[in-house]
Amino acid sequence: MTILFSSIQELIAQFAIPPNSSEVLFGLMGDSLRQGIVLAQQVSDPDIMGQIKNAWDNFVETGQIWALIIGMVLGYLFRGFRGS
User: Fold this and answer.
1) What is the pLDDT of residue 35?
2) Using CA atoms, how far apart are residues 79 and 84, in angstroms rounded to an integer?
3) d(CA 56, CA 78)
4) CA distances from 72 to 13, 48, 56, 57, 68 (A)
5) pLDDT at 60
6) pLDDT of res. 64
7) d(CA 25, CA 10)
8) Residue 58 and residue 55: Cα distance in Å, rounded?
């Protein structure tokens, strides 16, 4: 069975959600669906790589990297003591 589409819009239309399905989905998922839609539409800073860099710099500056490393070492040692 071969299905041909004359445009990418026809292909996407096959998977699109009908306009009146929000009532059905809202009944099934509750308020989380509406919150997800709102969150997906509000982008305050589209520079994702810049946000990751700022978060990493803050992680290192505040010393949380050392807490992570110490926690991993102690966790590995305690795991060894338990005999697992």
Assistant:
1) 55
2) 6
3) 28
4) 49, 28, 18, 20, 6
5) 95
6) 95
7) 24
8) 5
pLDDT value at residue 1: 46
Buried b (16+ CB within 10 A) or exposed e, 36-68: eeeeeeeeeeeeeeeeeeeeeeeeeeeeeeeee
Contacts of residue 5, defined as CB under 8 A and 6 or more positions apart, other chains included, come to: 11
Residues (pLDDT < 70) of the chain are 1-43, 84
3-state secondary structure of 17: coil
Q: Inter-axis angle of helices 64-82 and 48-61, to 10 degrees?
A: 70
**Helices 21-29 + 31-41 axis angle, to 10:** 110
Compute the residue count for the chain.
Answer: 84
DSSP state of 4: -
Which tokens sit at 39? 């969150």
- Exposure of 4 in the CB half-sphere (CA atoms within 13 A): 1
